[in-house]
Write a structure and sequence with these properties.
single chain; 216 residues; Arc Repressor Mutant, subunit A; Muramoyl-pentapeptide Carboxypeptidase, domain 2; 3-stranded antiparallel β-sheet; 9 helices; 47% helix
């Protein structure tokens, strides 16, 4: 949604976000700090509130009219961090050095099952459940499309990604795909086969989804 890089924090919106990271502030306080008008601040806050990134944090009472204070939502701060991917890579390296390959695979599948237990299960037809699986990958930051595999036997829907939302982790440890395979299968109730592409370039997702109740 927002590009978290140095140029962003040089814009008015980025400078506003930087101020709100330090402390909740009113429109007047932000306008003074930024050297812009109150209306300019309100316009930025309206956009950030609409996107669920900023929220009201009570009312400040002074000599004049009470003023609302604004702060970043709890969900916003993690999006600013660049520590998660490097930390995950180092964690996988440490686990890979301590566990046998099958133990690591089992652990990652257990992670997928625990993750799925915190997500709502989906029902409906095969295409509807496959669409829900694709939607989850998109929420994680992937770009995917659905396609039907040709051939005899039960219908198979393919969820194909352009890139991978956990590409850095997969590049370090391909078994990470097992966690995604497990979570997709658990929430959809479908048989999911991971067929991700991990060649010389960046990895890209590919999962085949089949209804286990279907007959050939």
């Amino acid at each position: 949604m927002y590009p978290w890089h140095k140029r962003f924090f040089q814009t008015t919106r980025g400078r506003l976000v930087a101020l709100l990271r330090r402390r909740p502030s009113t429109v007047d306080e932000l306008a003074t700090e930024l050297g812009v008008t109150d209306n300019a601040v309100r316009a930025q806050l309206t956009t950030l509130e609409r996107d669920g990134l900023v929220e009201q944090r009570g009312v400040r009472r002074g000599a004049g009219k009470p003023s609302h204070a604004f702060g970043l939502t709890a969900a916003f701060e993690p999006t600013l961090s660049q520590a998660y991917a490097p930390l995950l890579v180092q964690l996988l390296r440490e686990l890979g050095g301590r566990l046998r390959p099958q133990e690591l695979s089992d652990l990652l599948r257990a992670v997928g099952r625990r993750w799925a237990s915190e997500l709502p299960a989906v029902g409906g037809s095969l295409p509807e459940r496959a669409a829900a699986a694709a939607a989850l990958l998109e929420q994680l930051g992937g770009a995917v499309e659905l396609g039907k595999s040709a051939g005899e036997g039960p219908a198979v829907v393919t969820v194909r990604g352009f890139g991978c939302p956990v590409g850095l982790a997969v590049g370090e440890e391909p078994k990470v795909c097992a966690a995604l395979e497990t979570v997709l299968g658990a929430i959809t109730g479908l048989e999911v086969k991971e067929c991700c592409e991990r060649g010389t370039g960046a990895p890209s997702c590919r999962f085949e989804l089949r209804d286990p109740s279907a007959t050939g």
